Amino acid sequence: MLKAYRYRLIPTKAQEAELNQHFGNTRWLYNYALDLSNKHYAEHKKGLSRYDIQAMLPELKCKNEWLKKSNSQSLQVAIQNLEIAFKNFFKKKGKYPVFKKKVCGGSFGVPQNAKINFENNTVSIPKFKSIKAKLHRKFEGEIRQATVSKTATGKFYISFLVETSKLIPTKNPIDESKAVGIDVGIKDLVICSDGTKYQNPKWYRKAEKKLNRMNRWRSRKQKGSSNRQKWNIKVARQHEKVSNQRKDMWHKISHELLSNYDTICVEDLAVKNMMQNRKLSKSISDAGWGMFFAMLKYKAEWRGKNILEIGRFEPSSKQCSVCGATNNNLKLSDRIWTCENGHTLDRDTNAATNVKRFAFYQITTTDGMFGSNACGDDAVAPSVKQEAHRSLADG
Fold it and tell me: Is 59 a catalytic residue?
């Protein structure tokens, strides 16, 4: 099993300068390769391969002596990352590659010779014999590669991709009594079919007023000045705090759900497409549903749990979970409604119950035991559910 471990680095002033040199070199090479590829395609109508650009590295190092201060393999990884970005663009999995900026921090890859010493709390990579680190947890396995990164707030981190001896556990049997359906929203982040609701703390909304004030103060500082740079870091720290609060919240919710249930039933939502709604995009971004679905997926795989998903057009909100009657006249303002057979329903809890009901109905009607609904590589597919668009405004 491959797992990633991330640690905070505490470099000395000299090491910090060398790390910044690495970030600058890989960023420069990435931007140089992108500019060269754009010009070559405009002239010859044909792109450059990764190997064509790598063949230029010896000449580039002769012209730019400072490139020799970086690990040669890290420079090759920068070119490889550009190739991956182009492939994702042509496969329509991402946007066209753009030039990297210094203000975003930076990163560089270490494909080989990365080592960690838990006794001395140090990390060693090519060009760096020993860097102090906060090794808050241990792992056993073989290090496949490492990535050193710097945040916009000036913090340094290293991530190790480790191949452990632990095997991916076998999936637990899908049992309806040990399953729960969940519906995501804005007013309440997660609504479970058992009636449990997780409130939305709205971390960004709470910090928005302070962020706007900080941005106004920053805008008064002269561009390029040291005071402007200080305020850039202050604003970045506030954004980092909001991001950490959101991430911590989703870790706790996903851990609790997977600890209590063997099967999680979710809706088939395309968060990226929903972000195009100008009235709801900020609230959807603040909620961070994409992060939640990603956590559910990989944590379920580690624990042998199941993720089932329903189709994009299932009427989870409009259909009564008790008798199956559909209310086509249901409005967004109808948070509590009564079906034609007299059943009074909470809109969100009813939707979560229907998510579970539809998921298990698909299991019984799909060829094979679990069909395509069991958790896999496409457990949270990028598609749009029409009913979700209508129900987002009120959570």
Answer: no
